[in-house]
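Checklist before submission:
- one chain only
- standard amino acids only
- sequence pasted in full

Submission:
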Amino acid sequence: MSARTSRAPLPGYGAFLAGWGVTTFGSGLMLPITVIYLREVLHLPLSGVSLYFAVFSLGGLVVNPLAIRIGRVHGPGTSVAAAALLQAVGWGLFAVADSVPLVVVAAALSGAGTGMYYAVQTPVLNRVFGDDALSRVLAGQNRVTAVTMTAGTLLAGQAVLHFGTGGYTACLVVNAVSYLVHGAVLVSLVRKRGEVPVHLPQDASRRVRGAALRDPVFLCLLVFQFCAVIFGLGQFDSVVPAILGNAQLSVTAISIVIACNTGGVIVLQGLALRVVERIGYVAALAAAIVSWTVAAAVLGCALLASGTLSKLALGAAFGVLFAVGECLIAPSVQPLVTRTAPPHSLESYAAATSLAHGLGTFIAPLILLPAIEVAGVGAYFVLQFGGFGLALYALFSFRRRTTRRLEPTSH
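Returned file contents:
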């Protein structure tokens, strides 16, 4: 993949980013208020809040195999439309829920829609924009996410501050509608490309569905992604604030650290894409893990620092270094999936990566938060560095086993 190829005009790219920006803006609206809404408006106990997030995650995991079949039998447009509808109905139901059973149903529907979308996202983007442009699309998507979710988060606080319960309801409704907007844009792009379902004989279809989890080469990439989510991507919104709290940083200071991370993604994503194009996907992923290792060391220094200003400066540096790893990972993992998957198996392989990501997100706080509570932050850092080591081992195993497979497409 050359820089010239990746910068070629992409029909529909602007429309896709606009639709994606709408839905991530909606997600940003819900980011700071979901837990508060559950506790203060619906008056759920802490166990009810935990149940909501558990059902949301499990909904995505359960629907994962179904997403493959829908995409293969009925076409990618149908998969995207179904995902958008499930997400919209789930969040819409959440806006009118007044009991735990309704909250559980809303969580299951919205979680299933989210899981279905991410299971088919890579095949859809690959077919709409082409394999050579996939890194560019994913990088742009990551940058837009950082901008729009930040804007949504800031606006949600103001909506609740000025309108109270009505502000919560407005955010929920906007979030529900945002999924329909994004789904409509993506379905339109898919139809313009004239994509049709892929029909395989029943025996061949069964073999394809299980191909990803039987591929020892691809399993190395799955292990890497699993580690990258548990010890990186899946904990910044949950585990990291707890760690920063142990450093006696105020809520305002923690917000500054998170803002540094978001700002880092916005500023560095374009540069990171150029680095990925120059050094290749596997080297970029290795560099991302190295960046996160350094970031973890800086976070450890923040815990040991004495002055508040020193803690805040080190925390901000941690946020930026973490952003470097995010920016390198975003345009690198899924292109490796498309190059590893055999013909007619991309849906199965992409769904497997979605499953690994969902499991990692679900498991990260279940492992790391209890470790902090029971054994202290020292145990957290032992787990972190061990996880980074396992990620690098899996990545280099993948590279060693796929040299011949990746050679024809360079990266």
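Reviewer check: The first helix runs from residue 3 to 6.
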